Amino acid sequence: MPKAYWIARVDVRDPETYKSYVETAKPAFIRHQAKFLARGGRTEVLEGKARARNVIIEFPSMEEALACYNSPEYTAARAIRQKVSDGEFVLVEAAE
Q1: CB of 63 within 8 A of CB of 88?
Q2: Which residues contact residue 47 at a Cβ distance below 8 angstroms, ignoring those fewer than 6 apart?
Q3: What global pTM score does this model have?
Q4: pLDDT band at residue 96 under the 50/70/90 scheme
Q5: Which phi and psi angles does 88 have, rounded to 5°?
Q6: 3-state secondary structure 42-62
């Protein structure tokens, strides 16, 4: 089964409240075996419009990535994130 990746591009409007999102989401990430490959590091815009924060999270499978996103823990975290940030989240299955 191929791995899957959340790719998130986010502009945070309230960094203090965003910390609460991160803490609330942790149990879902642990339970669904999330592995952070990139999280808010240095970026360079090559084309298009950039966001301030870019994150890539690896999951064992597409099903596990979707289960994490739809979990009660992440649903609560998502509600916090959506109030204090703008962005795009994409789920991509790895090539074999």
Answers
A1: no
A2: none
A3: 0.92
A4: confident
A5: -125, 140
A6: CCCCCCCCCCCEEEEEEECCH
User: Could you read off the pLDDT of 18-69 as tens digits, one per residue?
Assistant: 999 999 999 999 999 999 999 988 999 999 999 999 999 999 999 999 999 9
Q: Which amino acid is at 42?
A: R
Token code pair at residue 27: 């149990």
For the beta sheet containing 53-59, the strands, ordered from the edge strand earlier in sequence to the opposite edge, are 35-39, 53-59, 4-12, 85-93
CA dist 4 and 95 (Å) reads 9
Alpha helical stretches, state H, the chain: 15-31, 62-70, 72-84
Q: How far apart are CA 82 and CA 88, in angstroms?
A: 11
CA distance 8 to 78: 12
Mean predicted confidence (pLDDT) in 60-88: 97
Eight-state DSSP code of residue 94:
P
